[in-house]
Structure formats: C-alpha cells, structure tokens
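Q: Structure for this?
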Amino acid sequence: QPALTQPASVSGSPGQSITISCTGTSSDIGGFDTVSWYQQHPGKAPKLMIYEVINRPSGVSNRFSGSKSGNTASLTISGLQPDDEADYYCYSYTSSSPWVFGGGTKLTVL
Amino acid sequence: QVQLVQSGAEVKKPGASVKVSCKASGYSFTGHYIHWVRQAPGQGLEWVGWIITISGGTNFAEKFQDRVTLTTDTSISTAYMELSRLRSDDTAVYYCARTDYSSPRSHIDHWGQGTLVTVSS
C-alpha cells in the first residue's frame, strides 16, 4: 500500500485544466518541501516534471505547475494536450522510509 | 548530457540472486546520490533504496533491508544493485536514478532506461 494517496485516474478534454492530488501526512508531505512529480509514458522511464513542490526543470512546459496545502500536494496541468496522456506519480521525502511514491494517477485526454 | 545506462534484461530462478549495473556519464559521479526504484508489471513505482556515491553509505525501504546490496565502483562511474533470494513477486523493471544534488532530501532528476528482471521457475 503506497504511503501517498493519489486518485487512480483523471481525465480531461484538450485545452482543459486538470489537477491531480497527492495526500500524505505530517511525516512526509506536510513536514518537508520535497514533493516531486514524475510523468511516465507506457514503456518509458519516468520524467521529472515538478520538484520541491513548485519548481519546474528547464525544458518542462509552464502548463505544468505544483502546489501544496497542509498534507496534500497537487499537480495542475493547464491547456491539456494529447501527449499529456500518461501516468503521473508524486514522490516525497519522509521522516521514516525515507522516500515514498504515490500510487500513480492515469491521465486520459479525451 | 547526463546518461545512466543499465545492464540488460535478466531471467532468474526463485532463490537466486541478480546484480544490475548502472553506468553514469556526463556528470561528476560522486557529486550525486544514486537511487534504485522498481516497477512490477502494470503497477506503480516503488522506492528500493539509495547509495551515497562518495562514501558508500546506504539506506533502504524496510521491506528490502535484508535482501538488497547497493555498491559503486567510482573508478568507472558505475552503481550496482544486487537482490538476493529472489521470489516471483520480484519480477519488475528496476531503475537506477540520479539525485539533483548530494543530499538525502534531493529529488531524482535523471533516470536510467530500466532493467527487466524476470523471476520464474
């Protein structure tokens, strides 16, 4: 059972915005500003999209943004495009494990 | 550019061990940790552990504590993960990945291509 809880699936139409949540506890998301988000297309390695809650690596579209409130982090994708269809994982440092992933969210672009 | 190139697919019998390699290039190997992550077929990502490349210090997820060994050979910028006493549920793609900076709290910024380990009798 993953330590971080994500919705199993979300969907949206091209051009729309969607938000994926990632809920943990005060021992992980709530206690550290270390949440990162990864995009994974089928058969490919994950790709870093957001790090340290809100930061975008160079080369990642500004349509991707991150935020955090309490024990929940969120990834928002605006202006959905067909290539955004993928699995998305949150990832956080914890006081115990010390790193854990969310269970993953499958994004479908309708 | 940063590259992590992993060894090829492996097929092992239950109870055996497997050793996966991860050769780094394009950056200073000892300036970043190496994490290992696995993904069972159709499942999510699972953190296995990390190694501090400059010192060899390690940390593991509790479920892997007694079966995983992480090592490095800094002379050839290569990290290794050995998993022993293999079971069928160890069948997965194993990824090595680099941290953005040298800290236990640093995120992963680059990934290897993955190595499929199949455990079957």
